[in-house]
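Milestone M4 deliverable, item 7.
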Amino acid sequence: MAAFTALAIAGLALQAYGAVKAAKDAKKAGTAQQQAAESEAQIADYNASVADLQAKDAIERGALAESKFRSQVRGMIGTQRAGIAAGNVDVGYGSAVDVQGDAAYLGELDALTLRTNAAREAWGYNVQAGDLRKRAAIARKTGYYAGQAASANATTAAIQGIGSIALSTGSLLAQRYGFKDGSTPPPPRVSLGDAVPGGVNG
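Output delivered:
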């Protein structure tokens, strides 16, 4: 019986170890998932910041290109005026004015096109930044829920292990002391002779 009891206790110890290990493994897995999700979120945040800088750079480059082009248009119109004046034509009258007006108009259209293209490029980067930030938020939520699920799984594993140990302990007690789980040992039997002092014939 002593050997059986020792084996049973060893079995309970193994069950307890298994329950604790299962709970720790579940918690560790959840922590790893949460850390991976946070790393993914941080990368997405960084890329969103880069996209913000690219959008700002696109606007600045567009403004610079527009300003430079306007200067070129003004220079071109000045060259036209000089050429017209060299031909003894009044630069402020008739077709000379029309030529200069057309050049200014076309130059303005091209300058506005440069501004629009820069705005479109910046808009694309802004959309990309917004998408990356949403991905970061989703990754963090996914990691949070994974951590919560892991904690719940760890608690469940621990409770199941404790329940299994409790059942095994009850079974061991039943085998050791000869009573069923949840019951108490039966009272000793008393004979009539034991109950009456001096016996029946006393």
